[in-house]
């Protein structure tokens, strides 16, 4: 499987993310009583919007890069025995922040990442409610586009004497509070989904620690974008944070606005 030129594909990737967002918004804008919610085997919620976005992204990626496999939250689970041989693949969360979608707070995203080996290289995050795109091709920095405005290059603000931490809107653990106590945190921002990575990438926060479980598709696109904006994603003790593991469940991780 040959490497692909993500920079050449980026216009279409951005369009795919936006079209998935449009499919989500068609359901989001209906009365809540019309939004069908079911529970997956792990008791996490699944909506019509998750499935609609997944179907659209999967079909369009297959057309765009027919030789690159797709690993998606709402797609067929691929056993490690098969995917361990993949040199690269798309890692997709068609609707990240389903709880935010259900609660109607607008803080949900479409996540598409390209994993090469065990590292997220390129990524697209789209926030449909605010019409904001965050993206990187993995070589030329990270960018944000809001609506029809010009793209803005993202850059972290680095480490300062006092820090701004970003925290989850729907999740939290005592371990996270204890871990952050080792830093000089002066303020915090709470937000849902992969937008936490984006806030650090665009210089609005500097620190995010997650103790509770996530999946690889929850973090891959944000990881790629933050890295290209000058930040870093590691394990709590600075160890590499890798992908395409035997288990797709992530351990604890730390996002910082510095290397």
Automatic annotation (TrEMBL):
Name the positions where substrate binds: 73, 95-98, 218
InterPro entries reported in the protein's UniProt record: CysQ, CysQ/Inositol_MonoPase, Inositol_monoP_metal-BS, Inositol_monophosphatase-like, Inositol_monophosphatase_CS
Where along this sequence does the record place binding of Mg(2+) 2? Answer: 93, 96, 218
Q: Note the CDD domains from the entry.
A: CysQ
GO annotation, cellular component aspect: plasma membrane
Q: How is the protein disposed in the membrane?
A: Peripheral membrane protein
As cofactor, the record names: Mg(2+)
UniProt cross-references to PROSITE patterns, sorted A to Z? IMP_1, IMP_2
What function is annotated for this protein? Converts adenosine-3',5'-bisphosphate (PAP) to AMP.
Identification of the protein by name: 3'(2'),5'-bisphosphate nucleotidase CysQ
What is the primary gene name for this protein? cysQ
